[in-house]
Design goal:
Shape: globular
Helix content: 25-40%
Low-confidence stretches: none
Order of helices and strands: EHEHEHEHEHEHEHEE
Number of strands: 9
Mean pLDDT: 89
Number of domains: 1
CATH class: Alpha Beta
Strand content: 15-25%
Distance between the termini: 50 Å
Number of helices: 7
CATH topology: Rossmann fold
Structural class: alpha/beta
């Protein structure tokens, strides 16, 4: 059933550009992680999140989120402001469960993947389906996504602002005694997205896995080769 509300033409427009990976296949995917509830997190949290989303679209990347409210929701909204492409990963197994049980939105997402794995399982799929991760103002769920990205050595951008998440993460990282060259701290959404895309492209260029399947497009895997 159609909803009687105004839809911004930019939100349904075809993306103008995509930031292709070095192989020519695939587009850079940047996850935005942050609190679903932001009432006690400062005045500029949601606008900063929206600007992150805008920059992701402006620079030709795809945004991925947890298909939830708060920071991820406003980031996805910002991406659609610039006619970008948005993918959400839901903890629910169906659209009905997503809306009625989890009380989560459908707006500003072009594709929703219904994982059926709850919040923790959803987090793992979300991070591993993304090339880089931006951590904004967050709570426990955000820290979980940070931990997965940190362990997986994903390029990580920590957005600095009026909240305390960035300062807490600095303490965690210092106490972990685990060097990580793929961490970026920046308060400027434009610079943060630029630096993450540059890091992703460099990583992909260096690994650049190409699969040469002599059996054609079969699913057996027989005769597959990995060319580095």
């Amino acid at each position: 059933m159609a909803r009687n509300k105004f839809i911004n033409p930019k939100h349904v427009a075809t993306p103008a550009n995509f930031c292709r990976l070095p192989s020519g296949y695939g587009v850079v995917k940047i996850c935005v992680s942050g609190a679903a509830e932001t009432e006690h997190r400062g005045l500029d949290v949601l606008e900063k999140a929206r600007e992150v989303g805008r920059e992701i679209a402006r620079q030709g990347a795809i945004i991925t989120t947890g298909a939830t409210t708060g920071v991820p929701f406003h980031s996805a909204m910002g991406t659609k402001d610039e006619s970008g492409f948005s993918i959400g990963f839901s903890p629910a197994s169906t659209e009905r469960e997503h809306v009625e049980t989890y009380k989560l939105p459908l707006d500003y997402m072009d594709v929703i993947v219904y994982t059926g794995f709850g919040y923790a399982g959803r987090d793992l799929l979300l991070i591993r389906s993304s090339d880089a991760v931006i951590i904004g103002c967050g709570r426990i769920g955000t820290l979980n996504e940070f931990a997965v990205a940190f362990e997986d050595r994903r390029p990580l951008g920590i957005l600095e602002g009026s909240w305390d998440t960035d300062e807490l993460l600095k303490q965690f990282i210092a106490s972990a005694h685990r060097p990580n060259s793929k961490l970026i701290f920046d308060s400027d959404p434009k610079a943060l997205v630029e630096r993450l895309i540059e890091m992703v492209m460099k990583d992909k260029q260096e690994t650049n896995l190409v699969y040469n399947n002599h059996d054609g497009f079969g699913g057996t895997g027989k005769g597959d080769e990995v060319v580095l």
